[in-house]
UniProtKB/TrEMBL annotation, chain B:
The UniProt record lists the keyword Transport: yes
Record-given protein name: Simple sugar transport system ATP-binding protein
Keyword annotations from UniProtKB, A to Z: ATP-binding, Nucleotide-binding, Repeat, Sugar transport, Transport
Residue stretches making up the ABC transporter domain: 9-244, 259-501
Keyword Repeat attributed: yes
One function term, GO molecular function aspect: ATP binding
Listed CDD domains: ABC_Carb_Monos_I (cd03216), ABC_Carb_Monos_II (cd03215)
Lineage, uppermost ranks: Bacteria, Bacillati, Actinomycetota, Actinomycetes, Pseudonocardiales
Superkingdom as given in the UniProt entry: Bacteria
TrEMBL record, chains C, D:
Organism: Crossiella cryophila
One Pfam family matching this protein: BPD_transp_2
Gene Ontology, cellular component aspect: plasma membrane
Keywords: Cell membrane, Membrane, Sugar transport, Transmembrane, Transmembrane helix, Transport
CDD domains registered for this protein in UniProt: TM_PBP1_transp_AraH_like
PANTHER family reported for this sequence: ABC TRANSPORTER PERMEASE PROTEIN YPHD-RELATED-RELATED
High-level lineage: Bacteria, Bacillati, Actinomycetota, Actinomycetes, Pseudonocardiales
TM regions (residue ranges): 19-35, 47-67, 79-100, 106-128, 135-154, 174-195, 224-246, 258-273, 280-299, 305-324
Protein name in UniProt: Simple sugar transport system permease protein
Length: 325, 504, 331, 331
């Protein structure tokens, strides 16, 4: 297959069978909830015997404990969703000691042994959002509603967004709103900012799953919710790709969103773990599903799944996971 | 003559258990209309428990209560109980964070269509207190009153319910003689107006002073009920203790006078602080000194300052000729002072901890090497204390919260003496303590004196002061008089109250 | 007599406790006005109030519980679960998430929100008042259970599809203020009035101050303490409804960690964790202080990495200022 | 005499308080063994211990503070900030995140971790004991400040480039158990011994039971209460170090929300929030119960959407069981 090499009878630990443990980082975000629902479905499709998912509840230490517990239960493969690129390494080491292959989803570990990383580029989300907003706004103030500053995804998005803005759109001033993935912080914070700066021209929501509704509510309260095309329209770009974001795009309430592929995360997580359990090893190059494997750090291969920017033009695309629920 | 009216209250066959403890065993009591009926017994005899049954606060396991010949209302109907009986409980029932006015009218605040009328409330409260001669602002928080004021407020409140039957559970334990006199005067007035009292006290002379009948409880059982005239004081004590033999408290007047060369154990010079000024006295080895005065005289503050519980504004304290660091209890302990503090519940005991723990609390650094205080050593000291002070308890591991008031006081005494002090300060040492225990506690003071140490007894109870070689009297914060042993009761009382007697 | 002169001064101090936060609040508002010229605009003040309404109601509930000397940590979860159950009753099953094919009418669903709050309070009260379990740990367990039920019953999904009535409290306005703000205002006035002028209100203080004494005075201690849990649950449910409207959706994380803020507001507002002490006015100043600081820090664009530290420092500063101005040790 | 018969039962009850959790723990372990045959394997039991070591140390610190009748919420933030500052001192600036070009040697950096814990405790103690500010709200403010400082000083980045010494506690083993477990075990033994056999330990109980009486017995109440804050800070710092080693990195969220678990463990273990009551043995059973339940729920394959609700329900169940077996109201 593309991007894979069959290892000739390498460390065949279970012949590709046995139970697989899967984690989720948190369940209070619609995005991860969708992922959580895709896991058993995609596992069945791939013929992988997955245990019920385990929720780390935003606690990196709990993730390590969960991994330990799963390994002690004798799983033969792990599909983990690290909360952080570094704060998973101890878990990876344990899996390695037991010869259990690991696929990491959403976050690439800093080091340690993983068979494959399945993720879309979070920096690219920030850049895409910046470009879309920058093109339309050019000059003026833009709010970015940040995630939890202690989370790697939120940080990547923030940094990329800011870098891109300063580089490409020097006329734009960014107002930061750290909202910790929390709806009410987004709502009240945005209202404060809009009151202090009635001339805000654009908003970047780093997590549409949490921030879409409060953003729209705040805009509505400040009487700034005008459809795309209206000169008073505040450009809004979101991130995640849940159905409600698509709905808002259709209505012209927001301009675009980056679809973070929950389905593909689950699907290729299972796809790679199955192969890894069968003893296959992989190398950089194109895959059989249109993506490319990149060696992001020595020894760490990443299947970089596409995360399409969804606008009015492609919002009805059936291939988007947000249109399949 | 008409048939005798039904008793105001009649309790029959009352049994009340707390877990395995039987606090009341088949106890009965009958209180006749218009009388003042005393209820006496040693600490833990069951008096307060009987009170809580008679006021409907706790339901007996068996037995019946009736008022004026009718069965008592159901326990849930507090209102009905309150019309039949009012009570000053032994333990404070004020709400510290609420004002005096509100405490007086809690849950019956004057209101119009459900809206409390604060001005009326304050006015009625002021009237109530004025009628009682209680000199307290109705706007003061109850928690900031001193013990006497608080007690008076509680008494005024109990009387204001309009019940014709009033229970007073040790109302005089914390009052000074002035306040007690006022209370008795009031009781007389009410009694002539037809109010009936049930009165509990460990001061037996009070029983003879205000009561017509007396009931004795012992070990949860009813022993005797009789007109006070029918029981002599020693018969009463025998009934309470279950053994014969009167009371003997050492009297300072019967001792040899101190040798002139007795060295000075404690010297207080020009001590001033909140509530007292320029107090000086010397206490010699082998001497028992009394410090008397009303609650407002500042005597407690002086004693607490000497022990380091308070910082003085001016003046100095020397122990055995060595100046003492002010405001430092530990320094006082190391200098050889021991102290029975004013309130055993506030300062004397950690109720949740054992007898051993409490008895050793002031000497934790002396139980073993490097600060070790092995449970064995603690228990050992506790066991010794139990034997030495006659504490009625199962063993040294028993939490002091389990003990009766008098026995708790003995543990405080053990703590004060744990460091084998050269100077023993005892503040209100026998408050709330039964006659027999009082005797035991004062005997300790005498024994300590006999060992050549010095004792300072801070109290206004004559019984407490009797063992003293001399008594200093404070009034309004200053030393006002000195009485050598052999004083007459009336003379000392007058001195404490600041009333001049003719021909002294 | 010594105490007589002491008394009036003491009282002044006791009252000061409730006003203790005003100087701090004034300082923050002043700084706000200097830093940002729109800070004192009507718009912004309305925004602060609108953002604080939900918190204010939950703080009200918690304050009542604290006054009786108990604890309720689970209110934060009620903020999430109560409106969620209402929403699940009101959203048609066809949309993939509701419970019934023909869902309840809005008014009934909203009533259900309140009922859920009441039931949670009833259960807490049962465990704490009747079974005499430790309030802290019981309501912590309830917090976890209810949060879990919320995640479980919505499968983590955010609910968007509720009828408009669910959003009305936060979105509709009257005389320029959101209904939620009026509601919170009225709730504080009514509760504040009852606490000061009604026997039931005074009973709360009595119970928190000395439950045994309250019982001796004929106050039905258990019944009232239990009722307070129920009232607090209902208030938290209303707070949750307001939050839902304010945010425009109901995520499974609604109310998460809110209890810290609730306690912070109540306690810096002078409510004692030991019971029986504090007033609603104090609690309200606590809520407003937090709301104003939040607003101010965001508008001032304190670098986002440092905003939390500054927020904590401002609370600590306010606390110390309150300590100095009221001159009293805090409990 | 009546009291004499009462005594033995009272004492038995007082001791039962500390053992109250054992039946619940036994039931959970039993269920674990039935549900999953690997549950009682050495591997799994070691895993439970390893996962609980950090929590155990923080609970130890909190227990000491609670025994004296105070509160410290900020311990959860110390778990993050203390090792973070040590790490920033030990990582070369060249790596883009450390503070010094030539960083401190590991041992000095680890000493710094402890010192940071001590300083935080010192500051808390100053505010609570000296200035007599409310412990709950002071340490809540500190919690927020320290969390903010952590996010600010790391710019939210996760630290993982520390020298190996930072990970040694959790990764190195001795006789099959991680050093962290030995350390926690020794800490509990020593502290438990001091609490029972040393005057300082007895003084903690006395202070928590009745500070006024303790003062009147010559115990230096303020000095000891203050010291306890410092000790708790140091223990939390060590807990943080263990956590760092356990996770293999130090994220800016380390310790986040931990304080709930800390209180849960201490309180279900019989430590009273009113002070002066409870033992370390009880607290330890609380820690183990939570660790075992956590492990069990994963092993029992409870669906993730419901796992939290079940966790809460188990805690509540354990609490009720403890109530029944000890037969005592809980405070
Ligand atoms: N709430 C309770 N729980 C358990 N035992 C109790 C309780 N109240 C009282 N007792 C027990 O009942 C007995 C009687 O107590 P009670 O308070 O009636 O004594 P008392 O005669 O009032 O003593 P004192 O003179 O010290 O006030 C005591 O031995 C005590 O141990
Ligand atoms: N929780 C309890 N358990 C067992 N016995 C109790 C308890 N509380 C009180 N008692 C008993 O009730 C009786 C009276 O209480 P207590 O000893 O506190 O009165 P006291 O010391 O005389 O009070 P005061 O100093 O206020 O006059 C005692 O016999 C005591 O044993
Ligand atoms: O990456 C995630 C974001 O997209 C989601 O919506 O919320 C939580 C984050 O972990
Ligand atoms: Mg009594
Ligand atoms: Mg007594």
């Amino acid at each position: 297959g593309c991007g894979t090499t069959n290892s000739p009878g390498g460390q065949q630990n279970s012949g590709g069978t046995g139970q697989v443990g899967a984690t989720v980082p948190l369940l209070t975000s619609p995005f991860w909830q969708a992922y959580n629902n895709y896991v058993p479905k995609m596992a069945t499709e791939a013929g992988v015997q997955a245990l019920p998912t385990v929720n780390a509840n935003s606690d990196p230490a709990k993730l390590i404990t969960d991994m330990t517990n799963l390994l002690n239960q004798g799983v033969k493969g792990l599909v983990v969703t690290p909360l952080d690129s570094a704060a998973v390494v101890a878990g990876l080491a344990q899996a390695d000691r037991k010869g259990v292959p690991v696929v990491a989803v959403d976050v690439a570990p800093e080091s340690g042994k993983v068979a494959m990383v399945v993720r879309a580029d979070n920096r690219a989300y920030g850049t895409k959002a910046c470009e879309h907003i920058g093109e339309k706004v050019k000059q003026g103030k833009v709010v970015q509603i940040q995630g939890d500053l202690a989370s790697v995804n939120g940080r990547d998005r923030s940094e990329a967004f800011r870098e891109c803005m300063t580089g490409k759109f020097p006329g734009i001033q960014i107002l930061d709103l750290p909202a910790e993935w929390k709806a009410e912080k987004a709502s009240s914070g945005l209202e404060s900012l809009l009151t202090a700066n009635p001339d805000v021209k654009g908003v970047y929501m780093q997590a549409g799953g949490v921030y879409l509704a409060p953003t729209l509510q705040a805009l509505r309260r400040k009487d700034l919710l005008h459809p795309v095309g209206d000169p008073r329209h505040v450009v809004a770009v979101s991130n995640d790709g849940i159905p409600q974001e698509f709905e808002a795009i259709r209505k012209g309430e927001i301009d675009a969103t980056v679809s973070q592929p929950a389905d593909a995360y689950a699907k290729y997580g299972m796809y790679w773990i199955k192969k890894a359990m069968a003893g296959e090893t992989f190398k950089a190059g194109p895959t059989d599903h249109g993506s490319t494997i990149v060696e992001v750090r020595p020894g760490i291969l990443e299947d970089q799944l596409p995360a399409p920017l969804v606008t009015k033009a492609n919002v009805d695309d059936k291939a988007l996971w947000g249109n399949q629920l | 003559m008409s048939a005798p009216a039904a008793p105001v209250v009649e309790a029959l066959g009352i049994t009340r258990r707390f877990g395995p403890t039987t606090a009341l065993h088949d106890v009965g009591i009958t209180v006749r209309p218009g009388e003042s009926h005393a209820l006496v017994g040693r600490n833990g005899a069951g008096k307060s428990t009987l009170v809580s049954v008679l006021t409907g606060l706790s339901k007996p396991d068996s037995g019946t209560v009736s008022f004026n010949g009718e069965p008592a209302p159901p326990v849930a109907d507090r209102e009905a109980w309150r019309q039949r009986v009012a009570c000053v409980y032994q333990h404070s029932t004020v709400i510290p964070e609420l004002t005096v006015a509100e405490n007086l009218f809690l849950n019956r605040q004057p209101s119009r269509r459900g809206v409390i009328r604060w001005s009326a409330l304050r006015r009625e409260a002021a009237e109530l207190l004025a009628a009682w001669g209680v000199d307290v602002s109705v706007d003061a928080l109850a928690g900031e009153l001193d013990v006497e004021q608080r007690q008076l407020v509680e008494i005024a409140r109990a009387l204001s319910y309009g019940a014709r039957f009033i229970i007073l559970d040790e109302p005089t334990a914390q009052l000074d003689s002035h306040a007690i006199a006022r209370l008795f005067e009031r009781m007389h007035q009410l009694q002539s107006a037809g109010v009936t009292f049930l009165f509990i006290s460990h001061h037996l002379q009070e029983v003879y002073e205000v009561c017509q009948a007396v009931t004795v409880l012992r070990d949860a059982r009813h022993i005797v009920t009789a007109p006070v005239g029918d029981l002599s004081r020693s018969q009463l004590v025998d009934a309470m203790t279950g053994e014969s033999g009167g009371l003997a408290v050492a009297d300072g007047a019967e001792r040899e006078p101190l040798p002139d060369n007795a060295s000075v154990a404690l010297s207080v010079r020009g001590l001033s602080g909140a509530g007292f000024a320029d107090v000086s006295f010397r206490l010699r080895r082998g001497e028992v000194l009394g410090l008397a005065g009303s609650n407002a005289s500042g005597k407690h503050q002086v004693a607490e300052t000497v022990y380091g519980l308070r910082k003085p504004d001016a003046g100095a304290v020397e122990v055995g000729g060595v100046p003492l660091k002010p405001g430092d209890v530990l320094a006082a302990l190391h200098a050889g002072i021991g102290c029975v503090p004013r309130s055993r519940h506030d300062q004397g005991l950690v109720l949740g901890m054992s007898i051993g723990d409490n008895a050793t609390m002031s000497v934790l650094d002396r139980l073993g090497p490097a600060g070790f205080a092995a449970p064995k050593a603690v228990r050992g000291k506790g066991t010794t204390a139990i034997a030495e002070y006659g504490v009625v308890a199962k063993d040294a591991d028993q939490p002091v919260s389990d003990l009766s008031g008098g026995n708790q006081q003995k543990v405080v005494m053990a703590r004060a003496l744990a460091n084998d002090p050269d100077v023993l300060i005892m503040i209100n040492p026998t408050a709330g303590v039964d006659v027999k225990s009082k005797q035991a506690l004062l005997a300790v003071a005498d024994r300590v004196r006999a060992e050549g140490k010095a004792v300072l007894i801070v109290s206004d109870e004559l019984d407490d002061l009797r063992p003293c070689d001399r008594v200093l009297v404070m009034r309004a914060g200053i030393l006002a008089a000195e009485h050598p042993a052999g004083w007459a009761d009336g003379e000392l009382v007058a001195s404490i109250e600041g009333v001049e007697l003719d021909g002294d | 007599m010594a105490t007589e002169t002491a008394a009036p001064q003491r009282i002044r101090l006791a009252r000061l406790r409730d006003l203790a936060l005003l100087p701090a609040l004034a300082v923050v508002v002043l700084i706000g006005g200097l830093v940002n010229d729109r800070f004192l605009s009507t718009d912004n003040l309305v925004a602060v109030l609108g953002a604080s309404a939900a918190l204010a109601l939950v703080v009200l509930g918690e304050t009542l519980v604290l006054l009786t000397g108990k604890f309720d940590l689970s209110l934060e979860s009620t903020v999430g679960i109560a409106p969620a159950i209402g929403a699940l009753l009101a959203i048609p099953a066809a949309s993939g998430i509701g419970w019934f094919d023909s869902p309840l009418p809005s008014w009934l669903a909203i009533l259900a929100v309140l009922v859920v709050g009441a039931i949670v309070g009833l259960f807490n009260g049962f465990l704490v008042v009747k079974l005499q379990l430790n309030a802290f740990i019981v309501t912590l367990a309830m917090l976890i259970i209810l949060r879990g039920l919320l995640v479980g019953s919505t499968e983590g999904k955010t609910l968007f599809q509720m009828p408009d009535a669910f959003f009305a409290l936060a979105t509709n306005t009257f005389l320029g203020l959101p209904i939620s703000v009026w509601l919170a205002g009225v709730a504080y006035l009514v509760a504040g009035f009852l606490l000061r002028y009604h026997r039931i209100g005074r009973a709360l203080y009595a119970i928190g101050g000395n439950a045994q004494a309250a019982r001796a005075a004929g106050i039905r201690v258990d019944r009232i303490a239990w009722s307070v849990f129920i009232v607090a649950g209902v208030l938290a449910a209303i707070g949750g409804l307001i939050q839902t409207g304010y945010v425009g959706a109901l995520s499974a994380g609604q109310g998460d960690r809110m209890i810290f803020t609730v306690f912070a507001a109540a306690v810096i507002g002078g409510i004692s964790l030991d019971g029986g002490k504090g007033t609603l006015f104090g609690a309200l100043t606590g809520v407003l202080l937090l709301g104003v600081v939040d607003n101010l820090l965001t508008a001032a664009q304190v670098p986002s990495f440092w905003i939390q530290a500054v927020y904590g420092a401002v609370i600590l500063g306010a606390l110390m200022l309150a300590r100095v101005t009221s001159g009293k040790a805090q409990t």
